[in-house]
Design goal:
Rossmann fold, 2 domains, 7-stranded parallel β-sheet, 5-stranded parallel β-sheet, binds flavin-adenine dinucleotide
Length: 332
């Protein structure tokens, strides 16, 4: 049963290194509005770790997206993510505000932060959810794949806050204007004086992979599977993607066989993408892969087996040899 001591929905507004609010926050926020309505208009709050004097720059975004309250910490020591600092401040805040639901984006940072907060608060955390709802008892019903993706389990949490993480691109932003006057509440960071940060960050280096593979926001994803067979197949895929203006993705076996880096793996244990066009090349269409791409606007599948399951979800199916098709297209 709902615990009346805990009210409202709290979200983590992660700031990126380029100092903008991570898109997963806006995706979660859309869902939070839906949940709030089902809870009779629950207050929506956000938590933000900002560098000194920068919070004002985000006022418009929070107000337009209908965030009632922003709790923010401003401190030089919070400029880079720190497991110790962030999780301590976040946990203390949750203990004080007592939200009934706490949602965190399953980014690299969120995946580190969320379990630490849930274990410090002795509450449950449902990770990598693909749907969130409020059940008939007013509890958060968090759905995620289980048994290797064969089943969907809807999980309820016994303790409070009810925590869930959701990967980027799972929920859609509808760009509704929810305008409210957001209240900004600055929180004290003096407790950091008594903590030890065990990690010293010396330098950030952008990898070439990061620069060329912006898979999360790509309009066109051209993904390769084991049907491409080897490095030559993936070289052809890269050329094919380049010609189309797409970004390369891959299945897990392709990654495990060293044909593509893990950062471009799509599926249950990789990324979730939501491009306008997804071209699946030599991919069978296992559910563990399709959960990461089935929300693409248009799915094109190229496979030489007419019975491959990928054709069940494809909008356009091309039965044929990838090597021949890609080569012809590149030469056009
Ligand atoms: C717990 C768990 C988590 C997992 N997580 C993920 C995940 O995140 N992402 C993921 O992708 N998988 C994941 N998997 C693996 C998943 O179950 C499948 O094994 C995998 O997606 C299959 O990869 P594939 O389609 O590349 O290979 P295959 O299943 O081997 O399919 C290859 C396809 O290529 C076609 N083909 C062959 N030659 C050609 C050709 N010349 N031209 C065109 N088509 C051709 C074949 O007909 C076939 O359909 C996970 C599995 C488990 C158990």
């Amino acid at each position: 049963m709902p615990n009346s001591e805990y009210t409202g929905i709290m979200l983590y507004a992660q700031l990126t290194r380029e100092n903008y609010i991570h898109t997963v926050f806006f995706e979660l926020l859309e869902k939070a509005h839906e949940l709030s309505q089902k809870l009779g208009g629950a207050e929506i709050s956000a938590v933000c770790f900002a560098s000194p004097d920068s919070i004002e720059g985000f006022r418009g975004a929070f107000e337009n997206m209908g965030v009632n309250k922003v709790y923010y910490f401003e401190d030089k020591r919070l400029q880079n993510y720190s497991t110790e600092y962030y999780s301590k401040l976040f946990t203390n805040l949750v203990n004080e505000v007592k939200p009934e639901i706490l949602l965190i984006g399953a980014t690299n940072q969120g995946r580190d932060l969320a379990p630490r907060i849930s274990s410090a608060l002795h509450t449950g955390l449902t990770a990598d959810c693909i749907e969130l709802d409020i059940n008939e008892k007013g509890l958060l019903a968090a759905t995620r794949p289980t048994f290797g993706g064969e089943l969907m389990a809807t999980i309820l949490c016994k303790n409070y806050p009810q925590m869930a993480t959701v990967r980027p691109n799972v929920f859609k932003v509808h760009n509704v204007n929810y305008h409210v006057n957001t209240e900004f509440i600055k929180k004290d960071t003096s407790i950091l004086d008594s903590l030890t940060n065990h990690v010293e960050i010396l330098e950030f280096k952008k990898t070439v992979e990061n620069e060329i593979n912006n898979l999360d926001n790509a309009d066109i994803v051209v993904a390769g599977g084991m049907g491409l067979k080897n490095e030559k197949g993936f070289e052809l895929l890269q050329k094919f993607a380049h010609k189309i203006g797409g970004i390369v993705g891959a299945t897990r076996p392709a990654v495990e066989n060293g044909l593509a880096p893990h950062s471009v793996q799509i599926g249950q244990t990789g990324k979730t993408v939501r491009p306008k066009i997804y071209i699946a090349c030599g991919i069978s269409g296992a559910v563990q892969h399709t959960v990461g791409m089935d929300k693409a606007e248009h799915i094109i599948a190229i496979n030489n087996d007419p019975n491959a399951p990928i054709f069940d979800i494809a909008d356009t199916g091309i039965v044929g040899d990838f090597f021949e098709i890609a080569q012809k297209y590149i030469e056009m």
